[in-house]
Please model this.
Amino acid sequence: MLNLNFIKVDVFVAFTCVCHIQIIMLYSSLLKNTRLVLATFLSATAMLSTTRSANLTEIIFSPVSGVINSGDPGFGSLADTYNQNGLSTKFVSGVTDFDAYLALNPIHSNIFAGNEWFSNSGTQNATVTYDLGSVLNIDRLALWNEESSGIGRLNLLSSTDNVNFSALALGLTPLDNPAEEYPAQVFSFATASARYVRFEASLCPQPNPSTFPACAIGEVAFSVNNSATSVPKPFTIVGTLIGATVAFRTRQRLKATNKL
Ligand SMILES: [Ca+2]
Ligand SMILES: [Ca+2]
Ligand SMILES: [Ca+2]
Model:
C-alpha cells in the first residue's frame, strides 16, 4: 500500500529545497552587487546631503533703502515699508530663514502712522524702487499689502545697476486685505540676480474698503536663494568622491571577473 505520508514529506522536502536554492541564488546575486549598492548608496547620500544643504539657504532680506519714482512724496515714509515697523514678529535681515519666519504668520499693523506708506491722494498708480544693498539671488517677494488702499496690480522689475530693468513678474494681483491687521502674501518668480527691485503699482485703491484714493504698502521683504551660487561643503565633496571611486573600482572588478 502506498504510504501517502511518506510522499507528502518528500514533496515538502523537495519544495523546501527549491525554495532554499532560490533564496541562496538570490542572496548570492545580491552579495555580488552588495559593494556596488553600498558604493552607490554612499554617493547618493553625499549628493542628497548637498541638495539638503542647498535647500536650507533661503534667507529673508529687507531692502536697505528705497526711492519713490512716482506718486511722491505721498504720506508717511517709504522706510516704514522695509524697516519692519508694524510687523508683529521681527526677523534679522540676511540671517533669518525665509520660510521659517513666514511659518510664524507675522501680521502687520493696520495703523498708518509710523508703519505704512501711501502715495499722493488721488493717485491710482505709484512706482517705487528698493535697493537691496548688493546683488542678490532673489526668487520670492513677501508683501504685506496695506489693508485700506493697498495695491491692485503689481509689476516687479529688477536691475543690477539701477538703470536697466527687466521684468521679474508682471500683472500680479495682491489680495485685497480687509480693514484689520494683515498677513504677508508670497509671490514667486524665477531666480534673478538683482540689487534693485522696482514696484509698479496700479489699480489703486483696492475696493475693500477703498477709503483713501492712493496706493499703499505695509512691508516688503525678499527671499534670497544662495543655492544658485553655493558650493558643496568639504564633507559632501569627499563623500561624493569616495562613493564614486568605490563604485567605479567595484564595477571594474566585477567586470573583470565577469560578474557584471
Ligand atoms: Ca493701514
Ligand atoms: Ca511696515
Ligand atoms: Ca483692502
Notes: The pocket of calcium ion (ligand 3) is lined by residues 147, 150, 176-177, 206, 208 (CB under 6 Å). Residues 4-55 form the longest helix (52 residues). Residues 150 and 216 are 5 Å apart (CA to CA).
